[in-house]
Amino acid sequence: MACALSTSFLPKLAKPDVPISCHLRGLGCQASLAPSVEHHQEAIGEQTKLRAGEKISIGVLGASGYTGSEIVRLLATHPCFKITLMTADRKAGQSLASVFPHLISQNLPNMVAVNDADFSKVDGVFCCLPHGTTQEIIAGLPSNLKVVDLSADFRLQDVKEYEEWYNRPHGAIELQKQAVYGLTELNRQAVIDARLVANPGCYPTSIQLPLAPLLEAKLISSESIIIDAKSGVSGAGRSAKESNLYTEISEGINAYGITKHRHVPEIEQGLSAAYASRVTVSFTPHLMPMSRGMQSTIYVQMADGVSIQDLHQHLSKRFQEEEFVIVLPKGVIPHTRNVRGSNYCHINVFEDRIAGRAIIMSVIDNLVKGASGQAIQNMNLMMDYEETAGLLQQPMFP
Amino acid sequence: MACALSTSFLPKLAKPDVPISCHLRGLGCQASLAPSVEHHQEAIGEQTKLRAGEKISIGVLGASGYTGSEIVRLLATHPCFKITLMTADRKAGQSLASVFPHLISQNLPNMVAVNDADFSKVDGVFCCLPHGTTQEIIAGLPSNLKVVDLSADFRLQDVKEYEEWYNRPHGAIELQKQAVYGLTELNRQAVIDARLVANPGCYPTSIQLPLAPLLEAKLISSESIIIDAKSGVSGAGRSAKESNLYTEISEGINAYGITKHRHVPEIEQGLSAAYASRVTVSFTPHLMPMSRGMQSTIYVQMADGVSIQDLHQHLSKRFQEEEFVIVLPKGVIPHTRNVRGSNYCHINVFEDRIAGRAIIMSVIDNLVKGASGQAIQNMNLMMDYEETAGLLQQPMFP
Amino acid sequence: MACALSTSFLPKLAKPDVPISCHLRGLGCQASLAPSVEHHQEAIGEQTKLRAGEKISIGVLGASGYTGSEIVRLLATHPCFKITLMTADRKAGQSLASVFPHLISQNLPNMVAVNDADFSKVDGVFCCLPHGTTQEIIAGLPSNLKVVDLSADFRLQDVKEYEEWYNRPHGAIELQKQAVYGLTELNRQAVIDARLVANPGCYPTSIQLPLAPLLEAKLISSESIIIDAKSGVSGAGRSAKESNLYTEISEGINAYGITKHRHVPEIEQGLSAAYASRVTVSFTPHLMPMSRGMQSTIYVQMADGVSIQDLHQHLSKRFQEEEFVIVLPKGVIPHTRNVRGSNYCHINVFEDRIAGRAIIMSVIDNLVKGASGQAIQNMNLMMDYEETAGLLQQPMFP
Amino acid sequence: MACALSTSFLPKLAKPDVPISCHLRGLGCQASLAPSVEHHQEAIGEQTKLRAGEKISIGVLGASGYTGSEIVRLLATHPCFKITLMTADRKAGQSLASVFPHLISQNLPNMVAVNDADFSKVDGVFCCLPHGTTQEIIAGLPSNLKVVDLSADFRLQDVKEYEEWYNRPHGAIELQKQAVYGLTELNRQAVIDARLVANPGCYPTSIQLPLAPLLEAKLISSESIIIDAKSGVSGAGRSAKESNLYTEISEGINAYGITKHRHVPEIEQGLSAAYASRVTVSFTPHLMPMSRGMQSTIYVQMADGVSIQDLHQHLSKRFQEEEFVIVLPKGVIPHTRNVRGSNYCHINVFEDRIAGRAIIMSVIDNLVKGASGQAIQNMNLMMDYEETAGLLQQPMFP
């Protein structure tokens, strides 16, 4: 088939009036949608056998946690993906609805233990397993499967850094070399070509989206980048911990993991690459009395002669074609509530009181753009579907 | 047009693998999705000129409140409806995003004053204006417009009862006679045929869904129906009131409007009709520290010889074909969190400690099934589209 | 000692202008707070050697939970009690501040294991251990110690009922006979004379305070008493459970323990005693997104010829001399926020829409009047001090 | 009178075993309650007639707001102060309980309009009126009254700066010269001698307490002091605003007043004085979904050769004698929950990831140490009573 696959995506000002259906990017027509059970990379190309209305089979490993259930929630209205496999070792044999009754209206298979999973029937896998358990499991998957891994296990390209911060040997060093870091807007082409995507952490997503372009353009200094971040509690997952009880979280705030949070090397890896030189940041996360939402308030020194207007203009231009990254009009303050439940990231920049400094704010939903939403965005690209498919649900406010 | 319109809807166990597109109910095929550019009211009838992908034009009156913004949020992914008109008298001339930044990615017209609105270009209208202002405005709309009114102004069939509870004369007595009460699952055929639907209140929705079928079947007594209801704060709207400040609501609970809440006559109207005899209920609403969500805990006396199993079976059967009303498996307790942001209602029944009594629980999102979601569900039917179109977004948890 | 001790207490309208200091009730010093009733005092040393300003030594068993820390919080400003012993088996050797940093300014001994505790140096003990572990431990304490037990282990007078509801044999049957049920306002004289007080549960406190007097006076029917109760999460304690995570509790409500909550037999025990006949209630607790606070909304049938005014008058009269139980003026709705952090209970009654029925509301802070505050109130009485000593901290709002 | 008044206060390690009664600082005995300063109200006046147990009469101007009600809450257990006058113009004639039912158990006079207030019967006044209305009112008070003003009207010593930030002329320029800035721990002697104290703002309190000593000792640089502050909503008061509705605040975070918050000049005034040179800070406040509590996370550059240990040691030494300022042990992270409802400030310092930088955190309850508690602390000193009187209520957690 001659139709070249386009990497372009829908510009924000020209949203389709028709619903996004299950069609391949660039194919232009809904009818030619192509089939076949043995679906892999080539299939979405020359022979394109997927027929109209037929869906890609998706597996979710670790479906009983919050990122897993969020994948299921979002895929419920996805035009092209269909969940046919879910694993959860401690809940094997149970329905997802017994664990997450909010998903009871879904027609889903029962969960199985990962060792009992039949991967021959799925085309792509979202891996929502805990950090540290994931490397071996992904290494054991059939090589034709597309994989988006939501754990931290493949995010750090430097294996030594991984071993230092995670205090354990890396379990899949060869696979690490293939892993593509899936911050979609900053790494789209590599994601399209990837077989294994390491889905970014929530803090790194909210921080790199505004900072990487500014560092790349040398509009800000790499010295004294100070990041005061605030996160909802869902980032800590669903496991029972005293410190995450309602009574311990409600009506208060506290910092945690000061200087030691494991997202630090991931943040610095991305910023250093953008700046083409080693960047060290100050990063202090705070736990907030909210389930979802994340704000990074970032204090930076502008480069000589650079103004707030320059920063705003550069970011606006950089993201103007992006559906999910919105640089707000001047003066409008980002609120986490305004992206809740959605895949959007809102960004703005403000002049600081100290001359030459700027304040950059970015907000996301930590479970969506900071985890499961971006994972689907990446899988859409890897499968050659519309990048926004299944992700245009609007933020829920109030 | 020969094609008889069906009142059937998608059974839950056979959800479509294809996305719901913009097609008319009963037309049988997605391909025949109708003709012609010049789409106006007649099109949705005999000559059905709507072409594939073409959308119906929708107006939202009172877009700057929570029910208005919720209509906009939900319609953003609706396959058939497109908002082309929004009014907000005090915000006339402004963009919706200036009032609700969470909707900034939408491509919408600016808001206008209702008196400046051009209704000739819209096919249907959601009226989200405050109680008391709505009767005159709707009476002045072109008669070809389909209207779903989210206020209380047309809910009470007995004009005298309206005047007694609302302490003002009714402003559109003739129109009242045409108004159809839009509790969709209980009144579907009338909604389909309606031009003006009075969308139910949130409490009445959560209460009538389980009670009306049980009263109709005489499975419960009409005596001593005690309803202890709990609501999120968004039901009070966005206007600034001391009693709805964060500091006044957070970390506490209180009853309000004891015996005097204006939803009482609406509840009793529906239950009396179902029971074919006057029903008086005890109804005590409580304000909860949550933005969305509503639970009605209903204490009833079962009829002689009736068991909990009978209630569960009757409700299960009554709603088995409904997408949005789910009778939970025995013993599973409804949580408001499990329907948050969605159009679902979860119901269950429990045996009481006092012999012969039962406890019925139902949960909804007060802004969706209790307001804007049900309004869209009704408009879908009035426009002859799939009832579930645009409403299959799953509940958001956590 | 000749000084006859009075059981009277300070009327609300004549609050002392002097601070409550560390004096025995009835000792005549500092305001001559009144005599009467013979009252032995062996527990506090045979010869009653306590001098003005000297404090009683108190032990807290199970200091690392919420009720334990609440005892410590409240005793920090108690004029007569001083904590000299704290136990916490899993935190033995640690300071309380390491577990509860909010108490860091207190000058307290480190916690020890209960088996290592030296009880010879304390005069009274608050037992904040989990249900089921308490009977044996209290049975092993020196018999001269005054004990207030905050667990459920001694609340049910009928050992068989205990064994049925708690599904385990009672471990201290003899001691059970001595245990006095410590709902202070309803059982004051027995508490004064007690050596071991079973401190009531939170729900039973909020329910019996208004209902027992009305049942005793036969002003309400014992049939169809329907209690819809709402509680903050702190009642569930500090142990890590998935269901009590912030993400699981915030922004939602759900019932739990329907018909099976272990407070049911305690409630029915008290109400049956008041009514002098078996009372069975409908009791449905709900979990609320708040840390503290409890509301019981109680739906009752009034006796023939009884009016709301009668109920209000009877309760007002019954509690007019009580510091901690306030019957609100007619029409004022109780809010849990208005008793937060305090030992107060607010009550009111409302006419129902169903003729002959009434709605009774009572609110408390589940950790204070529902647990640690009432425990101190009881210990004050047992030690012959002012009942209100250390408990006049006002509710914290907002 | 010969008895020299001491400015010393109770060291933390030697808390009194006796309750703090109504006695003057330094007099050593409870019986001799007695004065010094010229003071009307005969009891406290020339002939020293105040007897044990007699209380000072206090007025609260603006009692119907949150800082006013908080004064009332805290004074309820104050051993020496008694409220005999309350004003609230719009609620004149009403009881405080009608506005704040949580204070219903207090025996208080009804509120009057400020113009109708009889100031001849009070010894001290807390002024809780809105910014901008206070200058004229205080200027009109009898000159013998001690006044603590909780508004911002007298905080800025430079009248021009006041006029610039508040955009209005100063209404009491002469009085401004007498006003003492009441950050108690940093300005104690001046407070003792003051007649009019300008009670600090909440942000300035939380920021100056740790920063002023470090700047004074030149342990940190005055360049690039970056303050990311987080506040509960009660700081915004009780007036009805859309932006403070529960639905707008819950489950989210947002910055506000970026670079323009009126606490900036107050912060810089204090820090500049401590540093003896102009200091400009970056200050970004964030609104949190909590009613009470404030955290300032402060990012600073240490002076050459200075270590984290130096900062910790300096602050520990500086505050070791203070009851209300607690420098936490190394590594312990401050939580706002741990000071909730109390007059305590918790502080700690942490090494940053960027070499040479430190992170300083301080937490307070914005309504207590950040407003009404510190006001009482100041009034205690102005009246020559124990500084901690009425303020030893412990933080409420959970």
Automatic annotation (TrEMBL), chains A, B, C, D:
GO terms for biological process: L-arginine biosynthetic process. One of its GO terms (molecular function) is N-acetyl-gamma-glutamyl-phosphate reductase activity. Keywords: Amino-acid biosynthesis, Arginine biosynthesis, NADP, Oxidoreductase. The keyword Ubl conjugation does not apply. The keyword Signal does not apply. Its EC number is 1.2.1.38. Residues 57-194 form the Semialdehyde dehydrogenase NAD-binding domain. It catalyses: N-acetyl-L-glutamate 5-semialdehyde + phosphate + NADP(+) = N-acetyl-L-glutamyl 5-phosphate + NADPH + H(+). The active site is at residue 202. Signal peptide: none annotated. Belongs to the NAGSA dehydrogenase family. Type 1 subfamily. This is Probable N-acetyl-gamma-glutamyl-phosphate reductase, chloroplastic. The lineage of its organism: Eukaryota, Viridiplantae, Streptophyta, Embryophyta, Tracheophyta.
